[in-house]
Amino acid sequence: MENCNKQLVKQLNRRDFLKASLIGVGAIALGELSGCITDSFINKPKDYWAWVSKEINGKVCWGCINRQGDYVVSPKFIEGEQVAAPKNYSRSPIGNYQSNGLAMVTNGFEDSSKGVYGLTGCIDTSGDFVIEQKFASMFPFDSNGLAPAASTDRVDAISPNTNKPFDYHPHGYIDKKGAWRIEPRFAWAGGFSDNGYAMVEDPTTVKNGYIGRDGNYLIQPQFVASTLYTNAFQQQECAELNGVWWALVTIDDWRGFIDEQGNRVVTISDEVSTGQLAITGEHFGPEGLIIAKNRKNLYGYIGIDGNYAIAPIYYDAGIFQNGLAVVTNTLKLKGMIDASGGYVITMMRKDLHRFQENGLACVQGDSGRWGLVNTSGVMVLTPAFGYICTFNEDGTCFANNDTKGISGSDWFLINSDGEAINEQKFAEIGFGYWIGGLCPVKTKKDGPWGFVNTRGELVIEPQFSKVNGFFEAP
Fold first, then answer.
1. Helix and strand tally (H, E) in the chain?
2. Would strands 308-314 and 299-302 be described as parallel, antiparallel, or unpaired?
3. Distance between CA 375 and CA 326 in Å, rounded?
4. For residue 471, what are the β-bridge partners?
5. Which of 44, 199, 276, 366 is found 20 to 30 A from 457 (Cα to Cα)?
6. For residue 365, what are the CA distances in angstroms to 335, 343, 466?
7. pTM to 2 decimal places
């Protein structure tokens, strides 16, 4: 702050300041005339928050902390009252804050006669409700400030397709004040894609169509309502498609991708199963491939023409990341292939995880122990650990020597050479949580949760009954 040009800031009148702001010469932080745009805004470090709970006066209360362990939202949300009881420790009943500064909160209200199990509203960053808990369900806001939501009304109907009764909560779209912007008239409503299309289910025809942000249909209802995929428009990533927007749909006996005008652009091969989870993913990544299961329940990858580009010969198959995918053969041994289907790591591993940013993948040897392999398939760390987790941004990861593997205890941090970085051990860890450089841990199996940094140091002492991972603060 001392290096800011304070004299320039002080001498600016309103008109000059406006001009200066527009060309990036300077800015005034509210309440601090000595503020400077470089220090106060451009280089402001990211902050991270996490929802946690602890017992207060015999009740489990949820609040939100920062990386220093200080409350940014006081623990005033009582579990079972303002918030529903979470199903497990790693999922708080309060959603992460969105970029608009709102977080969804679902309470424990139930009315089985209406099919209502929890009412959802939104709080601001002070923890105050700005949208009343009155919706049967709700989804995150899009960049234009609209969120799908359902009323608590229950409508009974008869499907014209099956002649069977069904019921639904009318869905529409609300703004950041909780007011309806698109009236609740749909049997279901999905979020808007960035191209301005949202998939909705028409309760009269029980077919899916697409509306714009004014609530009018852009593509009339005609698609089979399906739980196999969301039917949302997604931007295709491979170079051949140049970022076009397609949606994966089913029309009668036809299944494939449509464009924004509703034209059929890709027909999915008849070899692909019509069963549950037959297609994994709804857009083509950089490799131009999507996982697809055939009618014999074997997996392969279809290309942008809808036909198999990599034959369905695998018991299981993973998505491509950085040009590589983990696959499992019919003997349930794992290997890794590239986008041509060629083996990068041959099918001889009991278990294998995807490659991480450091070019290493966790691999389970014949002994059942875990080690590390590089992108050339060379074992760089002999399998010696009970389990090895994902590396964090500072190049360390949790591992243990327990024969129970992932279910074991006595977790400690290692580097990529397999060396323990300190002597600290933990009874339990939160898997997959390194956002903000912190991970939930327990020092005792039945003890409270705290948080550890990437060096294995306890930076927030164990004190919480339940925790969620950190997320980027709004």
1. 3, 43
2. antiparallel
3. 12
4. 49
5. 44
6. 12, 18, 34
7. 0.84
CA–CA gap between residue 317 and residue 298 (Å, rounded): 9
- Point out which residues pair with 413 in neighbouring strands: 398
CA–CA separation, 219 and 210 (whole Å): 5
Flag whether 370 is in a domain.
no
SS3 content of the chain, % helix, strand, coil (to 5): 5, 45, 50
State how far the Cα of 283 lies from the Cα of 63, in Å rounded to an integer.
Answer: 37
Q: In angstroms, what CA-CA distances link 321 with 72, 192, 335, 356, 432?
A: 36, 26, 14, 9, 17
Q: Looking at this protein, which amino acid is placed at residue 430? A: G
Q: Which of 93, 101, 137, 138 is nearest to 117 (CA)?
A: 137
Q: How wide is the angle at C-alpha 108 spanned by C-alphas 104 and 110, nearest 5°?
A: 115
Task: Supply 309's token pair.
Answer: 């580009």
Rounded Cα distance, 12 and 19, in Å? 10
Cβ atoms of 132 and 104 within 8 Å: the answer is: no
Give the model confidence (pLDDT) of 155-174 as tens digits.
Answer: 999 999 889 999 999 999 99
Region for 204 from its dihedrals, namely left if φ exceeds 0, alpha if ψ lies in -120 to 50, beta otherwise: alpha
Greatest alpha-carbon span in the chain: 77
Q: Which of 52-66, 190-204, 222-236 has the lowest mean pLDDT?
A: 222-236
Neighbours of 204 (CB within 10 A): 10
Cβ neighbors of 329 (< 8 A, separation 6 or more) are: 313, 314, 315, 335, 347
Q: How far apart are CA 333 and CA 206, in angstroms?
A: 43
Structural domain total, the chain: 3
Q: How far is CA 270 from CA 110, 290, 445, in A?
A: 44, 15, 51
Q: Are 205 and 143 part of one and the same domain?
A: yes
Domain endpoint, select from 224, 247, 267: 224
* Same domain (yes/no): 276, 201: no
Q: Is the pLDDT of residue 25 over 50?
A: no
Beta bridge partners of 63: 52
Question: Other C-beta atoms within 10 Å of 179: how many?
Answer: 8
d(CA 98, CA 124): 10
